[in-house]
UniProtKB/TrEMBL annotation:
The protein's name in its UniProt record: Diguanylate cyclase (GGDEF)-like protein
Transmembrane segments: 12-30, 42-58, 78-98, 104-122, 127-145, 151-170
NCBIfam families documented for this protein: GGDEF
Organism of origin: Allorhizobium taibaishanense
Keyword annotations of the record: Coiled coil, Membrane, Transmembrane, Transmembrane helix
């Protein structure tokens, strides 16, 4: 009803705009265009507009019910398309008549009419959309088809302005809805105040429940979780009890969201939340912290066995298939636990320790459980020290490159070297890339490090034998923009190494963060002539179909499939299948992590041709590469 009342005030103005604009255009074309256009068609349309205006004006103060209001709005909706089509056809029919001024008047008529109509129909969005789409498509297509620059620019300009107006209309309509909803809510609140004290109490309790409930999964939300942690801490501190906090993160959720859409992602979250709610019963709390992360609060008595049992049960219910449409998807979960008072002196500290245990689980035991203990405490302390050292480090002086050979499995000939970053901090000593690269990405310095190391690698690879390629690792952040990729290309152009002898390695994680952007970045690198390899294949969530759709040149099978390849039939099947399928789609395969003669022999029987690993050499500093090439490689295994 509110929509009808607001809309009924605009209809007379709508017809006024149509009539006055049409009369103006008829007047300027009266002696130029046929009477059918300037008199007959326009006159009939104006007559109908006058009749409709009078009808709306006469009805404006008549009381009506909601059904009648809906019927009238619906009839207006149906009339929007014919009116828009007629006005577009009629005005464009006048375009051939007259000079440039008359054509400009036609363009002005269409532009000012569609703008006016959009504003007048702001309380009936569907009609406004219909008018805007029909008129803008007509004016844009027709004006562009004329080939006249002024008309083409006018058509595009009108379309863009209409889009902006539609955006304003949507905003205004939302404000209108919000205002109406607010007024209704205020009215309801006033009525609620008249109820008895018991009803007021029930309403207050319900509001409190909703404020602590996640709207999607209907389990407690982040606010409720931390309130529960604070209460558990207070009770445990006052009574000498213990409690545990757990943090669960879903592994593989983002690919589901990206590949199947947000509705599928929402269903995954809802189903998993329901499974966890059923599993927890009344024994412990499960809450959604945000995104694909859940929190657990477990009251005492707490034991390691109890937490391991709960963690195993949680991981088991998470990894069950979830029906999506005609098929199903599957994710896994990693869990981290921390216990009060063993791991901290406050609820917030216990949560932070549990979160770090989760971080460790995702790195070391993805899909499993880790309970915070001494090892994590040392790691956490070390991590903080590394972060502080990184922020003050002179990275150009402290970071260097080591090189690990990539060899032909049959002949043992060195085909290339992978450049591996090494940071020896003046304050904390050697730091692995697994530690400092995430810090560099988080602080925004990864781009600087990548460019610095690429320049260094190109300078050191100049004197390598012809045909020896350089394999260089890129971070996910290096692929996020075209500008970043162009900077890397500029560095290669400034160097003396043939682009065809350079291979950039990207990880599955980098690809899956933004598949389309990664594909565009890889395509840009390939256009320049460098190769691109997908590193650690098999550890993430990409598939061979996605690999096939990306212009890669190489695939590196992760070392985790090689460790037990001599005894594991599953590993052998996976590696053999990846090698065969990769060769079928034209990708070279490099198998990482070869450490024993037995592994090399098995891989050779499977058809592997290129390998890398400690069996041939550990990563070596740049000054040792030439020595290794000249004779060190004959030792099969060279430790530095």
């Amino acid at each position: 009803m509110a929509q009808y009342q607001a809309f009924s005030k605009q209809i007379p103005l709508l017809y006024f705009i149509l009539v006055t604009n049409m009369i103006s255009l008829c007047w300027t074309h009266w002696h130029l265009a046929p009477a059918l256009l300037t008199r007959d068609l326009s006159g009939g349309f104006i007559f109908l507009c006058v009749i409709r205006t009078g009808l709306w004006w006469w009805r404006r103060k008549q009381p009506i019910d909601a059904a009648t209001a809906y019927r009238r709005l619906r009839s207006t909706n149906w009339l929007a398309a014919p009116i828009a089509v007629f006005c577009s056809f009629w005005s464009l029919s006048l375009l051939p008549y007259g000079d440039a001024y008359h054509r400009a008047h036609v363009a002005f008529f269409m532009a000012i009419t569609v703008v006016g109509c959009i504003f007048c129909l702001m309380n009936l969005r569907s009609a406004a959309f219909i008018v805007a789409i029909i008129v803008n498509v007509a004016i844009t297509v027709f004006f562009v088809a004329t080939g006249e620059q002024t008309l083409m620019a006018t058509g595009v300009n009108v379309a863009l302005v209409s889009c902006a107006l539609i955006s304003i209309l949507l905003s205004q309509y939302k404000d209108f809805e919000h205002l109406y909803t607010t007024r209704q809510a205020m009215h309801q609140r006033k009525e609620a105040l008249k109820e008895q004290n018991e009803a007021i109490t029930r309403l207050s309790d319900e509001n409190l429940r909703l404020a602590n409930l996640d709207s999607l999964t209907l389990v407690p939300n982040r606010r409720s979780f931390f309130d529960t942690v604070d209460r558990a801490f207070t009770q445990a501190r006052d009574s000498d009890f213990s409690f545990a906090v757990g943090v669960l993160d879903l592994d593989g959720f983002k690919p589901v969201n990206d590949l199947h859409g947000h509705s599928a992602g929402d269903k995954v979250l809802v189903d998993i939340a329901e499974r966890l709610r059923v599993l927890s019963g009344q024994d412990w709390l499960v809450a959604r912290l945000g995104g694909d992360e859940f929190g657990l609060v477990i009251d005492g008595p707490i034991s390691r066995e109890k937490l391991e049992k709960i963690g195993a049960e949680v991981c088991a219910v998470v990894c069950l298939p979830i029906a999506i449409g005609a098929g199903s998807v599957q994710v896994t979960g990693s869990v981290g636990f921390a216990v009060y008072p063993t791991d901290g002196a406050s609820g917030q500290e216990i949560y932070e320790k549990a979160d770090y245990a989760l971080y460790s689980a995702k790195r070391q035991r993805r899909g499993g459980t880790i309970i915070f203990e001494g090892a994590q405490a040392l790691e956490m302390s070390r991590q903080k020290a590394v972060e502080e050292a990184f922020l003050t480090a002179n990275l150009t002086e402290e970071i260097s490159l080591f090189y690990q050979p990539i060899v032909d499995l049959v002949s043992g000939r060195c085909l290339g070297f992978e450049a591996l970053a090494r940071w020896i901090s003046l304050t904390v000593g050697p730091v692995s890339p697994a530690q400092f690269v995430p810090i560099a990405e988080h602080t925004g310095r990864i781009g600087f490090i990548t460019r610095h190391l690429l320049k260094m690698a190109l300078e050191q690879a100049v004197n390598w034998p012809a045909g020896t390629f350089l394999s260089f690792n890129l971070s996910a952040n290096d692929l996020t923009s075209r500008e970043g990729v162009l900077r890397l290309i500029a560095i290669i152009e400034a160097g003396q190494v043939n682009p065809a002898s350079i291979v950039f390695e990207i990880t599955e994680t980098a690809v899956m963060q933004d598949v389309e952007q990664a594909r565009a970045s890889v395509a840009l690198l390939r256009q320049f002539g460098v190769g691109v390899a997908l590193d650690d294949f098999g550890t993430g969530y990409s598939s061979l179909s996605q690999v096939h759709n990306m212009p890669l040149t190489k695939l590196k099978i992760d070392r985790s499939f090689v460790q037990n390849i001599e005894t594991s039939a599953a590993s052998q099947k996976i590696v053999r299948s990846v090698i065969a399928l990769s060769q079928d789609i034209g990708l070279d395969v490099i198998v990482e992590g070869v450490e024993t003669e037995g592994q090399a022999a098995v891989l050779k029987r499977m058809g592997a041709e290129v390998v890398q690993g400690f069996l041939y050499s550990e990563p070596m500093p740049a000054e040792m590469v030439q020595f290794w090439l000249e004779g060190g490689q004959t030792k099969r295994r060279h430790r530095i």
